[in-house]
Write a structure and sequence with these properties.
- The chain is α+β, with helices and mostly antiparallel strands.
- It is built from 22 helices and ten strands.
- It is globular.
- The chain is 51% helix and 8% strand.
- The protein has two domains: 124 residues, CBS-domain; 342 residues, Citrate Synthase, domain 1 (Orthogonal Bundle).
- It binds acetyl coenzyme *A.
């Protein structure tokens, strides 16, 4: 057994939690829905007071107890618990000695997971199939807490409410720099001096150009119903990459990879917004050559040269969303780059990852909530009812940030600076939501996240709701392509392994499969 592995690395998290007063029927639904064999029972202060398992449930039902029996009558009280940092050897000893199958895991007194004997069996299984001497490493589901690469691009420190790009506080960059300066920083590794910046602007401007034949080939994508701008962008970038003749990163030198990165990032808004306008029946719009990325974005969208205030507000949003640690789409881009594929293939894959609701999300949902509330006087009743019904308030809570999301702090400022009734209303609703969450979900550390004000800012500067996620994708291209360049520069094929849990092999083929 890999005794060096800690309980934290193997446990199921977040743990499934039951209350003493829940019925057996509710418990059965809870365990079934979460596909786990046990739940920790907690009191109103979230202290673990018991553990209840499928076996308890079956035993109780087998002896004729009815489904309304409370969990309190089924659970084992005062369970033995593990500490997250315990080595699995400690857990193994407890499982052996007490014949338990599940143990709640605490970290500084707080319930953080559940360790099942099945988790340990998996480790044993890997050891069995691996050659002696090669120590197995079992990653937890979702790779949470596992570092899979080194990066010098940036990092997120959730507990501190801080994230940075190459060491610089990202919110400070968004306050003091232009999109191009930060883009240069991510891609090239340093903030540009004035000459470097001018040259970078020029390269970005040239990158917006696409051969007329390619543009013509892409436009019909806007006619495909239902029109999905993010999917159309994904398909288009694949074709653009081919038309640019991008070579596999394996065969390209650093400069060639950088060039592909700049071109794809620069051209994405051109393709996206041209298709969007075509879909609406509007003629194509050009961006004035003197405009930077954000202002050009708005002109390509609306056909009008934007006000400096609107362009700067969007620019700050775009800078704040360029990169955010080793997220799913960035990881996807790096996996694809690790095969030596071209930069286009990597960003197309990343766009696919971003399209998932668990990642790219739906920034428009927070705005939908504001619409549903309508007026400030309805906020408290509406929000309270949502939380009491077990619904989540859109734009609040974060897996990593357990304090203010620094992006939301700056975007609040940007929204209020832009002004308008929606920003003031959002501020009102935010304060009510935080009050309601604090009261109904105490101790969960729920704060405003990036999505709450992102929608307000984009809406105020004229970005339509169905373009929120595609707009986010455009800024994230700067982060993805920086990650691809980094991967290409120090490449090793990313090729993990999996634990086979199917029928034991080899299996005999059933009769009747003789090829005649
Ligand atoms: N509203 C009400 N309650 C919430 C919210 C919320 N927005 N978020 C979490 N909670 C509660 C949960 O119900 C749970 O309560 P419980 O202990 O009584 O069961 C507790 O807080 C912990 O919830 P988890 O699911 O463990 O929190 P997790 O870290 O997994 O969730 C997430 C993070 C998915 C973002 C969540 O907060 C959420 O669903 N928020 C609303 C959707 C949203 O705003 N998404 C955009 C996120 S920003 C981004 O990803 C770029």
């Amino acid at each position: 057994m890999a005794v060096s592995v800690s309980v934290r690395e193997l446990m199921h998290k977040p743990p499934v939690v039951a209350r003493r007063e829940m019925t057996a029927a509710e418990l059965a639904r809870l365990l079934d829905g979460a596909k786990v064999g046990a739940a920790a029972v907690v009191d109103p202060e979230d202290r673990v007071i018991g553990i209840v398992t499928e076996r308890d449930l079956l035993r109780a039902l087998g002896t004729g107890l009815d489904v309304s029996t409370p969990v309190g009558a089924l659970m084992s009280s005062g369970p033995i618990t593990l500490a997250a940092a315990d080595p699995v050897a400690v857990a193994l000893e407890i499982f052996r000695e007490h014949h338990f199958r599940h143990l709640p895991v605490l970290d500084q007194g707080r319930l953080v997971g559940m360790l099942s004997i099945r988790h340990l069996v998996r480790v044993a299984h890997i050891e069995e199939v691996r050659p002696a001497g090669s120590a197995p490493t079992v990653a937890p589901p979702g790779l949470e807490g596992v570092a899979v690469a080194e990066t010098a691009i940036g990092d997120v420190r959730g507990e501190e409410g801080f994230f940075h790009y190459r060491g610089y506080d990202a919110t400070e960059l968004a306050r003091r720099c232009s999109f191009e300066q930060v883009w240069h920083l991510l891609l090239m590794g340093e903030l540009p001096d004035p000459d470097q910046l001018a040259a970078f602007h020029e390269r970005a401007r040239q990158g917006r150009q696409l051969a007329p034949a390619v543009l013509a080939a892409l436009e019909p994508l806007a006619a495909v119903e239902p029109y999905a701008p993010l999917a159309a962008l994904r398909t288009s970038l694949s074709l653009v990459a081919t038309s640019l003749g991008l070579r596999p990163t394996l065969d390209a030198d650093r400069e060639e990879v950088l060039d592909a990165a700049i071109r794809l990032t620069a051209v994405a808004p051109v393709v996206l917004l041209r298709q969007y306008r075509r879909h609406r029946g509007d003629p194509p719009a050009e961006a004035d050559p003197d405009l930077g990325y954000a202002a050009a974005y708005l002109q390509l969208l609306t056909g009008e040269r934007p006000t400096p205030e609107a362009a700067r507000a969007l620019e700050q949003y775009l800078i704040l969303t360029m990169d955010h640690g080793f997220n799913a789409s960035t990881f996807t881009a790096r996996v694809i780059a690790s095969t030596g594929a071209d930069v286009g293939a990597a960003v197309v894959g990343a766009l696919g990852a971003l399209s998932g609701p668990l990642h790219g999300g739906a920034p428009s949902r927070a705005l939908d909530t504001l619409d549903a509330i309508g007026t400030p006087d309805r906020a408290e009743a509406y929000l309270r009812e949502q939380v009491e019904h077990g619904d989540r308030l859109m734009g609040f809570g974060h897996r990593v940030y357990k304090t203010d999301d620094p992006r939301s702090t700056l975007l609040r400022e940007v929204a209020l600076r832009l002004g308008g009734t929606q920003a003031a209303f959002a501020r009102d609703v935010e304060q009510t939501a935080l009050k309601v969450l604090n009261e109904l979900k105490p101790g969960r550390r729920l704060y405003t996240n990036v999505e709450f004000y992102a929608g307000v800012v984009m809406n105020t500067v004229g970005v339509p709701r169905d373009m929120f996620t595609p707009t986010f994708a455009c800024s994230r291209l700067a982060g993805w392509t920086a990650a691809v360049c980094e991967q290409a520069a120090h490449n090793r094929l990313i090729r993990p392994s999996a634990i086979y849990v199917g029928p034991s092999a080899p299996r005999p083929l059933p009769a009747g499969y003789a090829y005649a």
